[in-house]
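Re: the request from the purification team.
They wanted to know what the chain is likely to look like in 3D before they choose a buffer screen. I agreed to run a prediction and write the result into the notebook, where they can find it.
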Amino acid sequence: MNNQVARISDIQLLPSVSTLYIDGSFLPLSSHSTSSMTYAWTAIDSDGFILESSYNIIPSLFPFALRSEIFALLHGLDSLFRNSTITVATDCAQLISLWSLYVDAPFISKLLKESNHLLWSSVRAIISQKNLEVTLIKVPAHADDFLNNHVDDLAKAAHTDLHLPFQSPELLAPCILQFNSLSVNMNIQKFIREIFDAKNLLTLAILPRFNPNSSLSDIDWACTKFCFNNNQLNFSHRNDRSEFCAFRIKILLDMLPTLTTL
């Protein structure tokens, strides 16, 4: 359990902040040398003046466009003064939809199946710890909203700003599952199943093959059957047939005591 009250943001905004404009930016591997995620937010007072802005890069352990949007929300909320009443403006409709489902409602176990459940749990924790009243509103995308364009430009600028400090955020979820010192911020049940599948595939891959002296006892038939029948590991398809399935068949045939291998 994580009982320590941590901070994600080192910024403390004034109580006069009334609106936060937030945005995230994601550059996939295909359009960039490495995948890159950034966030940005701008704090506005009731008169429409910009009080503070912040932007930074996010570790790309789980690269995902929505993740950058959620982290922008998370960092902005953690920068607020306690007992604040705030309006958060975003052009991400999916963020608002998931907010209504996972934050602006009682906790439901379905949250743990969400790929960003640790971030959403941290958002809930910050709102509770700081006693915040938060309302999300939708800014029409490409509507030439000056403040929305401003925060969008900040998020994009973070990709190329070489002077930004690397930030490894402290997640505030009450319970954090880790694997090899990395927080598991995806569907926990799916993650455990994939680790189990990978372990069985590794067992199959390292069994002795191409051995003229091999016998039937050298074959782990239980593992072979599991890997051969496992239809969950379908990474890519060609002509409606999994390439990974074809790879498993090849390994299996290489192991069998056929006339070619004997």
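For the purification team: The mean pLDDT is 78.
Please add any questions underneath this entry.
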